[in-house]
Amino acid sequence: MIDRRQFPGAGGCVLAGLASASLRQAALAATPASVPGAAEAGARVDALFEVLMDERLRQNPQELTTLGLDKGKYAWAKSKLTDASVHAALEFKKDNAARLKRVRAFDRTALQGHDLANYDTVAYTMETIARTEPFQYGDLTHPYVVSQLTGAYQSVPTFRDKQPPER
Description:
Layout: H1 7-30, H2 38-58, H3 61-66, H4 86-104, H5 113-130, H6 152-161
């Protein structure tokens, strides 16, 4: 289960990615016809966000389960736990840096309306995560190596307890 400390880091990226598809239609309707390429740029940024979210969710099976997405192509996640090792935290930071490069390579000036807001939200979240890169442990939500409030001893039972029973 995502707790209040995990929400800012993980939730922002998840919500922005999931919201982009539903907001795209409203943005297209609000886009003036005089802006050439705005609709195409919106479709391209939406496709980019879908790829980035898929990559991120595949690394976090607990998040998939928490969001109720552990069905269909993500059914494998129902029986998995997210790797919480120091190595995994460092890999996440490297992956975030690579994804951030792809986001920054996108032409932001071609966007407007909701597509621009989604882009800025995703970029800001990824840049905030990138600021933790110099630290060799932890992340935005759990900056300490050892804490009495966080860790597998606490998070795994809570996660399992909050999952609905199998049907």
